[in-house]
Amino acid sequence: MKPTYWAKHTGIVLLFILLTGCTNLDETTYDIITSETFYQTKDNVYQGFVRAFEHAYWSCAGSSFQIQENSADHFMTPNRQGHWLDGQTYFRIHWHAWTIDDGAPDGAWKNNFQGIVFTNSAINDISKLDPAKFNMAADEINMLTGNLRALRAWFYIRLLDMFRNIPLANTYPDENIQPSQVPPKEAFNFIESELLELLNILDTKEGNSGNGNKQGLWTKAAAASLLVRLYLNAELWIGENRYADCATYAQKLIDGQYGSYDIASRWDAPFDWNNETCNEIIYAFTSSYGYAHWVYGNDMFWWGAPFKSAPYFGFSDWGDMNPRFALQPGLDLEGKEYAFENGKPVRKFKKYPDDIRLKKYRNLGGSAREGMFLYGDLDYVDANSATQHVKADNGKYTLYLRDQVGWYEDTDTNSISPNPSGGSPVMISDMDHADQSSGWCLIKYPVYRTDDAGKMESDYVVIRLAEIYYSLAECKFRLGDKAGAEALLNKVRARYFPANSTSLYKEDGSQITEQELIDEWGREFIGEGLRRTILCRFGVYTSPWWDKSQEADNHTMILPLSRGILNSNLNLKQNPGYPDGRE
């Protein structure tokens, strides 16, 4: 386990607040731990503090990941001949046809508001403590409550992005147990004011070798980065152009006004096992094998590879993998590239064929790897020194991962179109007709060998400096400085190509277009939970891509409130375009 700041204080975290909506606050308590009895030592203070952070990390997976990635144009969870059909819930996410009874929008609302309850509770408790009683300084208490406020702002930004019309609940306990929604502008203003104030409260990162043992703590730079996100999306969220403000804070971050950060020379350094030493990371949730490692959970990246592919990685601690997530195809069943503009993530990468990320993922030993994708044949050497190949879960055919979706099964690897030996092929490419060779797989966070010291140790990155460069580049693009945009993008892109590569932009403004900028955001941040927001910001979220048609209107750019949420609070109003659903 890496010696992070969090390892010192996590311990056994006790759940001491209730998440149900209707709570009688005057009720006599007997066999539960109250805040008055819980906080007895300094360790208790930190246990109360970190509970919200563990929940926040967990909330990045599951519903939020589904909404941000599976509803966008990179990822898919198709029916693989009976695997992952799951009542067509993934179809509806892909098609933007979710209902008010579907779990993903419901979970995204609940998980984020539960996080806000955790932060409010901890802020309420910790701010009342006498620092001297716990051998703490007042500044240390302020540091804890400031971090919780920053985390709360992060929760609110996610809710504003996904639902737009949200309640503000910033006290605990809250006497108004059925709050009404506020206008998006009011939520935006609250988040902005909190972050601006936190710039004067939070610590500045020290040194230039990553966050070190303070990985997971919010800093001035992290708060400023949230301001960059807020301002970059202001036109989408509240109809106000705040690109100039976005550019101001992005430039401050790049200039080092909130601490020393830099773009890593290695593309995989921000995602590697020791990424607490990477100076590109502004904020990340800490992970460690055997402890919290949601980035490697089933709701995110562990189930982003074929069923029987664990031996390919040489990792045997967790059993089989599972292809819940793969990349949408760029080629049809005849090997022709689809005509739609968005999606086709592999084709977008192959536009620049000397990109080193296009190498097939392989572990090199000693907690090192190359490549970012799984494709083609997956060969490995077994315990008897014999070469084996990853097969389908039923063992009937050897996998050959393609940038296509169909029933390929044991089709010859030289064949573009399906032609399995078991019978006539089904010539359909859609969410209902995939096999286990359908789609490349993204392996952004390494899956190192069982005997590697760095196995499953990568911290989960929430904000890195590359996002600040790309945000400033987008601002410059929108404000007419295309040459400046290209130069900023090249600051990051240079690490992907050999010296003097023609894949780098000319920095004269001749190559960057809106579509290229959308594609470049996609290449840089593929799988990082930003894609839906990016597509919405550029107004193309409702456009067509593989097995998804052009939508009649834009109402799906905001998620619905579920039937259960609406029935639990009569003061909430359904978002436009969806049925009320109250019983």
Compact overview of the structure:
This protein is mainly α and 583 residues long.
Radius of gyration: 24 Å
Question: What separation lies between the terminal Cα atoms?
Answer: 50 Å
CATH-scheme architecture of the domain at 1-201 and 557-583: Alpha Horseshoe
Order of helices and strands: HHHHEHHHHHHHEHEHEEEEEEEHHHHH
The CATH topology of the domain at 1-201 and 557-583 = Serine Threonine Protein Phosphatase 5, Tetratricopeptide repeat
What is the helix content? 25-40%
Task: Work out the number of β strands.
Answer: 10
Number of helices: 18
Instruction: Output mean pLDDT.
Output: 93
CATH class of the domain at 1-201 and 557-583: Mainly Alpha
| Weakly predicted, low-confidence segments | 3-31
Give the overall shape: globular
Task: Quickly give the structural class.
Answer: mainly alpha
* Strand order of the biggest β-sheet: 1-3
| Percentage of residues in strands | under 5%
Largest sheet: 2 strands, antiparallel
Would you mind describing this structure in some detail?
The protein has 583 residues and is mostly helical. The chain is built from 18 helices and 10 strands. The chain has a two-stranded antiparallel ribbon. It has a two-stranded antiparallel ribbon with strand order 2-10. α3 (42-59) runs parallel beside α7 (138-163) and α7 packs antiparallel against α8 (184-198).
